[in-house]
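S1.2 Input.
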Amino acid sequence: MPLKVIIVGAGIAGLSAAVSLRLAGHSVEIFEKSLFAAETGAALAISPNGSRVLAYLGFSFERAQAQPLRVWETVHGTSLERISCLDFSNCAKRYGGPFMAVHRVDLQKELLKLALEGAENPATLRLGAKVAGVREQEGMIELQDGSLHQADLIVAADGLHSVVRSAVLKRESKATASGLSAFRFLIPTERLKGDPTFEKILKWKGPGVTLLADTTDTINERHLVWYDCHGGDVQNLVGIHPTRAEPDGGEEDIKASLLEEFQHFSPDFVKILNIAEDVKVWPLKIHTPLPKWTYGKVLLIGDAAHPMLPFGGQGANQSIEDGGALGYLLKDVNDANELFQRLAIFETVRRNRASRVQTLSKMRMGKEKEIEAELRLYADDDDTRTFVERT
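S1.3 Output.
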């Protein structure tokens, strides 16, 4: 008999798990607190480890209007002169999956389609369903409306501020300030057309990720990451910078902070920053890996289990891996005893891997040796190689 699974959260982790569990033959019900009324979000880089799982789930990169990321170039922010360039055009052949950029909303829509549409065993989705409490031993959630819902397994995929995680841990997960924050904003490509300066810089930009580094400041980390998404119709930009005092004047002050941080960059590029709208800023925090992900009949995945910094671009990819692995390991499982055995395997495999990636996400490239001892805490039992040997 198929398992009954409740998934809390319809983000990337939750929907990847829903599709994977549907393919495994289980009954899936998704509870999402929002109404999906205002579709927002920025773009994500999907590396081969994530794109391989998405392909297994039947994901259409074409329908999601994903953009191939053929290069990763690093340039001086002030002069735009190239420092280095990595060629990713051979990713699919070398690593089994392409390196792509996709808007979060496009990714979510395609995963929803795979989870909900079609006649064979579709998942169900409840919107506006806010979880108020969890009974982990009973496999039960209580919604804010007082209704109770029970399943063989509750998958907590409700993100960084997970209500389910707080309920089963009886405390908040530990986090410390990194000292860095991230500006995020999108610019419609159409806004850059018809202006000679904008068209020149678009022609200059490589076909993939461009990282504009502040090489004038040897103390503070400051850089901008730029790539397009949504079929090339949207430019996605992220500005990493030392955390500033929180602005009082809302959106205008945030944009002013963005311009102040990067005012010494190339004038052509700063002109692009000047037309940015709806600029958001988030402080970046370091989260300590959790000691376990399973609590009774509750399993944590995605950002509820392993929130990480953006360095390395693995947050979404690890969430996709979680979802794909869960369905794969629970295929043909139809009784509670076997369920818990498989969940133990899932936690052993996924927690170590995601904790390594989570730990690496707080370090800049080339400094991984500094945290080798910490990484060993999450090494697979039979793997005694150093970080250098592993890479």
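S1.4 Remarks. The chain has a mean pLDDT of 92.
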